[in-house]
Amino acid sequence: MGGGLQPARGISPASLVRRALRLLAAPALVGLVIAFYFRVVSANNTTVALTLLLVIFGISTGWGLLEATVASFVAVLGFNYYFLPPIGSFEVQDPQNWVALTAFLVTAVMASQLSVRAKRRTLEAVERRREVEGLYALSQSLLLSGSARTASQDLVSRVVRILGVTTAAFHTRLTHETFRWGPDDPLISDEQLQADRDEALVDRSQGVAIVPVRLGGQALGNLGLTGPLPSDEVLNAVAYLVAIGIERARTLEEASRAEAARQSEVLKSALLDALAHDFKTPLTSIKAAVTSLLGHPRADAERELMTIIDEEADRLNRLVAEVLEMVRIEAGKLHLEKRPQDVSEIIGSTLAELKPVLHDRPVEVRLQDGLPAADADFDFVQQVLRQLLDNALKYSPPGSPLTISARAGEGRIVVSVVDRGSGIDEQEQLRIFDKFFRAREHRFRVPGTGMGLAIAKGIVEAHGGRIWVTSEPGQGSVFSFSLPVFRGEMVL
Amino acid sequence: MVDDDPQIRRVMRATLVGHKYEVTEARNGEDALTRISAEIPDLVLLDMNMPGIGGLETCQHLRSGSDVPIIILSVRNSEKDKVAALDAGADDYITKPFGMEELLARIRAALRRAPTSPESGPHTVSTADLEIDFDTRRIHVKGKERRLTPKEFDLLRYLVSQAGKPVPHRELLQAVWGPDYGDEPEYLRVFINQLRKKIEPNPAKPKYILTEPWVGYRFSAT
User: In this structure, how many other beta carbons lie within 10 angstroms of the beta carbon of residue A171?
Assistant: First the structure.
């Protein structure tokens, strides 16, 4: 970055006129003092010289060095002419007076220089204090702003107010938005604000600066300012403060978003647990009561009625479980405990469980040799397979054979259940995994809720797999699902 | 019988009394802890989901001062929940709603000591840092007495009676819990872990109770 420490100030015609007037007024003041002592009050030469020095110091402090230097020369000439013998002449007879005049001139000019320098230092110190106060106010206000968006909006208005610039604009890379404050200024265009820049662009003659806003090497955006620019140090500090303010707002926003999401997840889980509890508690009493009654010897009619209560309690329980499971899947709250699983073991255990209902069915299991382990939750995959077998049983003629196969390929294990049922027509194949969908042909004939396959689909997809059906009406159906192959190290 | 639902307590009381059990009811965890310390039951049926201190916490409190068999009743049926309950010191876990016959079978299994007769295995085991006396049911590890729950003790006794041989999961479950069991490998994982914590000098590298991959467990006294 170039430029000095002083704020850039343009030289206007008014200031030129002021300067010229001061250059005339400075010797005029000296002339007045000389006239006063020459005509009104007579005093010794020392008094006159000291009074002139005082006036010159005043001029240097109030107006500047050039005015003071002009005044000094005029004072030396005037003092020599009116007060040193021979009076009324510029001639100097006594060599001592040469020394006095030279000492006067040197003292006047040097003291003027010192006075001007001290004044400049004071002004600089005031300027620094103002800048530091501005930065402090800016840091305070940036740290108090809320979201990253409102922080960016507040930022530009605060920079204008606190730093005293004319226009401020900030382009953020987070959302690719530009925030502006102050009159539109063509000096900071959108292209300039959006450009990648490592270095600041500062043009003090035009009063425009575009400073990159970075934090830890990451570019967050660019800050553009026009008008009376602060020093380079202040520009850098402002850019850094802006970076911290934006980053802080973004972190806060992310944290509050994460917390809100967490609370909503916790609430969802708690609600589902409460629902499960509230539905299942009365079912528990009914089931316990009726099974307790069934444990005693009963007349046939009584036993039949109690068995109906028991079976219906079971059915209600399954319905509640299915509805809750569907809600869990849709809420993304299915907790899979994925481990390396032997698919043949899942098939074996499902068949063992379904043994009572499979008794009249020849079941063929075809497993590819050297089948790798699947990365899956045993219970959930078993549920999917149970659902497919259950469907195959419901929708194929009694006694017809079923085939279960498992093969691996392309990082997946595909499990298929084949039946020799009536098949599913093409239109219905597309909708069969939809929630509550029931095939027209079976809607009133086969019991079911229309949630089983939708749940199976949810479970398979939660594993990162896919479920599909191929079917030939009249020939039967093949329901298949894929599971990812386990890729980690086996831990026993 | 600890459950916050009065209807469930009513059904259970009616059924259990019908099967000649004496039943004391508690409405929540705090109530249960007071009553159990006063009445010293032979078995606790404990609901998992209760207001105030829940089933798990109540189970842990009970277990810290008592060997009473505890069966957890819960509407949740995930393996995670079962393991959490067993880890808290429960002996068994049954999912609501349940058939009464199943609950009665599990109550009988929990009250029954494992069917290994003392004659079938050694009366004592003694190594450099482990001493087990099966007759007095006392265990000392490096001279310090350790308390085992009845199920932990029965599990250890069965493994010791088959010392050196790998015992399959199903056999172990049926020997310790009863003939209705066999599909609860998570029970074994939890109980074996607890046993290892109590008797192994370094539970992470067990030297007495060894895992036989894909088969079961084996006791080694050497």
Answer: 24
